[in-house]
Design brief:
10 strands, 10 helices, Rossmann fold, single chain, four-stranded antiparallel sheet, alpha/beta, six-stranded mixed sheet
């Protein structure tokens, strides 16, 4: 049976940059008179979950779009595999092993799980059928089952349309697809948004499993307590600048919120007065 390399095997083959998925230094981005990102430095390591918190308008989405090639920074550098790169689109990030799970999941609801897993990466049958564009569905199914099993994801059938799945199952498909096509890192935007408590817990467990398999996962979220339970490190943005960058250690929800509202480092009594 032809099997795809596991995430850990892929990572071991593409290891020139050591433990880092990417390193970005001094990133800035301005839109007109608005300075959306100001001199932000950020790095993502393999095997970790990096939580990116911040209030609405703090710059989280702008930063993420620079890291995946949607925006080009006005200044600063992004380094992947020990090389300073300038990305012109998301395909540049994907070619370097970084994939994105958007808040809207970017799934095609009328297509099946199998078809969504290979959307844009279809495998065609060879031989005399190759010119006719027939899909190699058996090979695609084997690779999909392997990708789902590596993350302990169970679905009723690969032939189900995505629209017939629950919210949690759709998120699982999006994560599994990103993990299958990523060599090193996944950027996730609000993965638990619009999900119930049980589904959110399942998705968080899935994120942790993805990191434990060797990928670096950066998670943008407003679900602070739940994401803190699975994160290794936390970055908080405020007004486009880094207000907090710390390993999880003993960080609490109160520490994160204090950084978000500009009270990082303040005395406990000051934080209490500003509640």
């Amino acid at each position: 049976m032809h099997m795809e390399l596991s995430p850990m095997e892929v990572i071991s083959e593409t290891k020139p940059s050591g433990n880092y998925v990417f390193r970005a230094q001094g990133l800035s981005k301005t839109f007109g008179h608005v300075k959306a990102i100001r001199n932000v430095s950020i790095e993502l390591r393999r095997g970790e979950v990096l939580a990116l918190f911040g209030d609405n308008g703090a710059g989280k989405s702008t930063l993420t779009k620079m890291l995946c090639g949607v925006y080009t920074p006005d200044s600063g550098t992004i380094e992947i595999d020990d090389e300073h790169i300038v990305m012109k689109g998301t395909r540049d990030a994907e070619d370097r092993g970084i994939t994105v799970v958007h808040q809207d999941l970017a799934l095609a609801p009328d297509l099946t799980v199998l078809e969504n897993m290979f959307l844009g990466h279809e495998i065609l049958r060879g031989g005399i059928l190759k010119p006719f564009g027939f899909l190699a569905r058996r090979e695609m199914a084997e690779k999909t089952e392997s990708a789902l099993q590596s993350l302990s994801i169970r679905l009723p059938s690969l032939s189900l349309a995505v629209k017939d799945l629950s919210g949690g199952q759709r998120q699982a498909v999006a994560v599994a697809r990103a993990n299958m096509w990523s060599r090193s890192g996944i950027l996730m935007d609000e993965p638990t948004a619009a999900l119930g408590t049980i589904q959110s817990d399942i998705v968080c467990s899935l994120i942790r499993s993805t990191a434990d398999a060797g990928a670096g996962v950066m998670v943008i979220s407003h679900d602070i307590p739940r994401i803190l339970e699975i994160a290794n490190r936390v970055i908080v943005l405020r007004h486009g600048e880094v207000a907090l960058d710390e390993p999880i250690g003993s960080l609490s929800r109160s520490d994160v919120v204090a950084a978000m509202v500009g009270l990082a480092g303040a005395d406990p009594e000051d934080k209490e007065d500003n509640k």
